[in-house]
Amino acid sequence: MRIAGVVLAAGRSTRMGVNKLLLPLEGEHLVRRAVRVAVEGGLDPVLVVLGHDAAHVATVLAGLPCLVVPNTRHALGLNTSLDAGLAAVHPDASAAMVLLADMPRVTPEMVRALVRRHHDAGAVIVASRYGDVAAPPVLYDRALFGELRGGTGDGRGREVLARHAARVTFVDWPASDGLDVDAPADLEPTRGGGVR
């Protein structure tokens, strides 16, 4: 069974002041790192949803086996990117894992662990849990795609997790691994919450 990867990378990075996805981390752009993690984690195909500064972001993905999915509605919220990504998932994929491009502590091993839990438990949703916070990557069975699609704003993934709480299987990670990049200090390994 194929499991697609949907990397959400369409936002404007308004809190950062620059396009954070193009910032370097250990010699690699943040967005390229996220896509590489999805590929090395065994997701196939890996779809990257781009919006803001799409042409520039796409250039840093050169050479990676991924497909770019344009989201011209990205300014209307993260749900539009989720919608665009899931619409592009090939019919032969039984599930899709949603990843955020600004979570640099996610590793290929984490992706593989979520896939294994899905196969072993037959779980409809397999979510990462950092301490007591559920966050991406999250694997959704194809049966839930309809609930995840459509609309604007943010939070559709969280809504589906809450609606199907009894059917969610969690894989636990250290709380610090749930870091997302909102400020330049988040990328500095020697400071508080930065990348290891």
Question: Which structural traits does this protein have?
Answer:
single chain; 196 residues; alpha/beta; Spore Coat Polysaccharide Biosynthesis Protein SpsA, Chain A; 7-stranded mixed β-sheet; 27% helix; globular
Describe the model.
The structure is a single chain. The chain is α/β, with parallel strands linked by helices and 196 residues long. The chain has one domain: Spore Coat Polysaccharide Biosynthesis Protein SpsA, Chain A (Alpha-Beta Complex). The chain contains six helices and nine strands. The strands form two sheets. The chain has a seven-stranded mixed beta sheet, sandwiched between helices. A two-stranded antiparallel sheet has the order 2-3. Strand 2 and strand 3 form a beta hairpin. The model has no long low-confidence stretch (mean pLDDT 91).
